Amino acid sequence: MTTAELELATTSAATAGDGTSMKALVYHGPGKMAWEDRRRPTIQNADDAIVRITTSTICGTDLHILKGDLPSVTEGRILGHEAVGVIEQVGAGVSEFHTGDKVIVSCVTACLKCDFCRKGMYSHCRHGGWILGNTLDGTQAEYVRIPHADGSLHTFPTGGEEEALVMLSDILPTVVF
């Protein structure tokens, strides 16, 4: 899909219905995906944030999903785990971020409280880890729910370029390993 087509689809979704829908890239089994209208995510837990996505990208993991290599990703899942966006809403338990903050969405969700998080092993978080686009709807959508927002989002630096800094959400850090 070209940028112009995506912008048209996004505009159509934003103006359709009652404002609770969004466009999202949805997995439908090996080799099958589609842009679909979906309900916007809502706050489910006190430590959640809702982020309006402004830039998203893909990585090799997404390609493995599309090949059908990851059985944990089930049909109907919104793909993606790398993004930059603006916080639209935060739960009552979020203390580090506020509505309107521009953020980098980490590919790894970290509760900051479990034994692995306390050891700095966030990808092994007992209540998170790699869940976006895997076991929880991901970032290739207009909006995403981020659990454990205080440990899963990073402040976007003033003057930064989205196209460059989206790489910090997953692509750049994992290439080191």
What order do the helices and strands come in, and which of them pair?
Blueprint: H1 3-15, E1 21-27, E2 33-39, E3 49-56, H2 60-67, E4 83-90, E5 102-105, H3 115-118, E6 143-146, H4 149-152, E7 153-155, H5 162-165, H6 171-175
Antiparallel strand pairs: 1-2, 3-4, 3-6, 4-5, 5-7
Question: What can be said about this structure in brief?
Answer:
The protein contains 6 helices and 7 strands, in the order αβββαββαβαβαα. By secondary structure, it is of the alpha+beta class. It has a single domain (41-175), classed as Quinone Oxidoreductase, Chain A, domain 1.
Describe this structure in words.
The chain contains 6 helices and 7 strands; from the N terminus they run αβββαββαβαβαα. The strands form 2 sheets. It has a 5-stranded antiparallel beta sheet with strand order 6-3-4-5-7. The chain has a two-stranded antiparallel ribbon with strand order 1-2. With 177 residues, the chain is an alpha+beta fold. The protein has one domain (41-175): Quinone Oxidoreductase, Chain A, domain 1, CATH 3.90.180.10. The longest helix has 13 residues, at 3-15. β1 (21-27) and β2 (33-39) form a beta hairpin.
